[in-house]
Amino acid sequence: MAPNILLEHAQSSSTEFLIYTGNFCNYCSAAKRLLERHQLSFTEFNFDEQPHLRQHIVEATGHRTVPVIFDIKDEKTVFIGGYDQLQPYLRQRS
């Protein structure tokens, strides 16, 4: 499921989560605050600043809105979804 670009991001990152965002996105800001509150590290890629990434991520996930969040802390990358899916995902982890 993970496109090459995602695998490159996951392998080059020493963080626990990848989050793809957009400018002026309240859900993106809320997702980042939630990860910070849980003291979880993340690497952010902004589709408005790097528009070539959007199509790769949409093709891999079918998720057309931001944020697009992945858990990359383990060997297997897990597609979480957006902000609404992040909340129960983190509760489940605790």
pLDDT averaged residue by residue: 90
- The spatial strand order of the largest sheet comes to 2-1-3-4
* Radius of gyration from the alpha-carbon trace, in angstroms: 12 Å
Order of helices and strands: HEHEHEEH
Topology at a glance:
Elements: H1 4-12, E1 17-21, H2 26-37, E2 42-46, H3 52-61, E3 68-71, E4 78-81, H4 83-93
Parallel strand pairs: 1-2
Antiparallel strand pairs: 1-3, 3-4
Q: Could you explain how this protein is built, in words?
A:
By secondary structure, the protein is α+β, with helices and mostly antiparallel strands. It contains four helices and four strands, in the order αβαβαββα. The protein has helices at residues 4-12, 26-37, 52-61, 83-93, and strands at 17-21, 42-46, 68-71, 78-81. A four-stranded mixed sheet has the order 2-1-3-4, sandwiched between helices. Strand 1 (17-21), helix 2 and strand 2 (42-46) form a beta-alpha-beta unit. The longest helix has 12 residues, at 26-37. The protein is globular and about 35 Å long. The N and C termini lie far apart (26 Å). 23% of the residues are buried.
